[in-house]
Every structure is written in structure tokens, then in C-alpha cells.
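Sequence, please.
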């Protein structure tokens, strides 16, 4: 035995699941600058740090980054809207926790529900706008699919 306690081994194994900013950027197809910007804007919680100050991203951080990308790229939400959505999701997750006083639990649940409802409304608005845009583009495309005058 190397003299490591079970706690030391567990901590090391947990740390091994973390990645530095370069690998996190590579895994998420973003730049390191973008990850730092998301952290500055409050979209990402400050990551763990190594002794030298290097950022360490957990698997949960990587999932959150992917969620940000999904909301931004797929649905076109602004960073402000994304921040609100992530806050609502965190609140919803926190409201499921045990040990909260009944009044706090009710407040968290109501706030989380309102935030999630707002997410659905925003998604519905985006989808409706995308459907209208699709119809406009399809109509323009159909103009070019008509036979040309004089063509056989």
C-alpha cells in the first residue's frame, strides 16, 4: 500500500474526472476565451482550480456548457435568456432537495415552475418565428422552381 487513505484515493479519482480548460474547450467545440466569457457572465460557475490556478471543469460543467451551446446555437437564445433559464433549472433542482423549510420549499417550487414556464414560452415563440421564416423561405424557393418562360 502506498500510504494513501481511501479518502485520498477517492479524491484523486474524482479529480481525474476533471479536465483543464483546453480539453474542455476541445470537448465542447468552443474556445477557451468563450469559456472564460461564460464564466464572467455568470453562465458557468467558477470552476475548481489546480494549485497553479488552472481551471478544472467537472463532467457537470461540461454538461452545462453543452446546454448553453444548445440554447444559444439551436434555439438562438441570448446569453441573458440563457442565464435566466439556467437559474430556473438550478432552482428547480434545488427545490427537490430535502430539509428546506416548507415556506422556502414552496417559494423555490413556485419560482422554479415560473422559470420553467417562461422557458417553454420562449421556446414556443422561437418555434413560431422559425415556422414563419421557413414558410417565407419555402415561398421564395418555389419562385425559382417554376418553369422558365420559353423553356420546354
Amino acid at each position: 500500500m502506498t500510504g494513501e487513505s481511501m479518502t485520498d484515493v477517492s479524491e484523486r479519482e474524482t479529480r481525474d474526472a476533471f479536465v483543464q480548460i483546453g480539453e474542455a474547450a476541445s470537448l465542447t467545440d468552443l474556445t477557451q476565451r468563450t469559456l472564460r466569457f461564460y464564466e464572467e457572465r455568470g453562465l458557468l460557475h467558477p470552476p475548481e482550480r489546480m494549485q497553479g490556478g488552472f481551471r478544472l471543469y467537472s463532467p457537470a460543467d461540461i454538461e452545462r456548457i453543452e446546454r448553453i451551446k444548445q440554447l444559444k446555437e439551436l434555439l438562438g437564445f441570448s446569453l441573458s435568456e440563457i442565464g435566466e433559464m439556467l437559474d430556473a433549472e438550478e432552482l428547480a433542482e434545488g427545490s427537490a432537495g430535502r430539509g428546506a423549510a416548507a415556506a422556502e420549499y414552496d417559494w423555490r417550487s413556485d419560482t422554479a415552475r415560473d422559470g420553467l414556464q417562461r422557458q417553454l414560452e420562449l421556446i414556443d415563440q422561437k418555434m413560431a418565428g422559425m415556422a414563419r421564416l421557413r414558410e417565407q423561405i419555402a415561398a421564395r424557393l418555389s419562385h425559382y422552381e417554376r418553369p422558365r418562360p420559353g423553356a420546354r
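The chain has a mean pLDDT of 80.
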